[in-house]
Structure formats: C-alpha cells, structure tokens
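Please decode residue identities from the backbone states below.
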C-alpha cells in the first residue's frame, strides 16, 4: 500500500512538469518588416505623379510609427479623424534627386510630403 501511494505521488509530481501545450507561437512586435506592401503602393503612387517607371523610385527609409489618429500624420483641413493610435510606417522615397515622405497604416498610404 505504501508503495502504491509513493508511485501515485511521483506520477502526480512528474505529470505537473510536463508541457501539455500542443504548440506555441511567439510574436515579436518589435520586428519591422524590411519591406511591406505599403511601400509598393507608395512607389506606384509616386511613379504615377512623376510619370516615371516604378523601378526609378527608391526606398530610402521605412520606420515603424504609431500615428496619433487615422489621418496618419497628414490631416486635411475640414476633415475629422478617429482619435485612436494607428500603427503604421513613415517611408522616405527618392526619385529624380528629390525625397518624398509617405505615411501609412497597414493598408492605406497618404502623401507625399516633399522632404
């Protein structure tokens, strides 16, 4: 009887140490994609504005930004914007020797602002 109790105690202790998860996903919010789809949207927009091939537009810098509202840092006069933190990117593109600043969330792109 004593042996059975010891075995049950050992089994319960050991089973508590086993990881029963089926798998886990690790997210790292600090990783910034080196290249995101919004860069393509910004490049296409700038190419159309300047009447240049997209291949002539160069990405100089892309940085992660938390915009203060849904205007993405480029509010238009007379417009109202949701006052929520909006994660996105600030992108600097270069074309024809000039720099252009675009802002985005993960779907929309606004700009350019001449730098």
């Amino acid at each position: 009887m004593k042996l059975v109790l010891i075995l049950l105690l050992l089994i319960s202790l050991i089973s508590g140490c086993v990881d029963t998860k089926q798998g886990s996903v690790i997210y790292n919010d600090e990783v910034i994609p080196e290249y995101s789809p919004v860069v393509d949207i910004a490049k296409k927009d700038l190419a159309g504005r300047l009447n240049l091939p997209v291949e002539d537009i160069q990405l100089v810098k892309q940085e992660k930004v938390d915009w203060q509202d849904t205007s993405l840092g480029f509010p238009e006069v007379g417009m109202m914007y949701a006052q929520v933190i909006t994660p996105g990117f600030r992108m600097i593109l270069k074309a024809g020797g000039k720099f252009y600043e675009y802002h985005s969330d993960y779907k929309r792109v606004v700009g350019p602002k001449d730098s």
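Observation: Confidence is low (pLDDT under 50) at residues 17-32.
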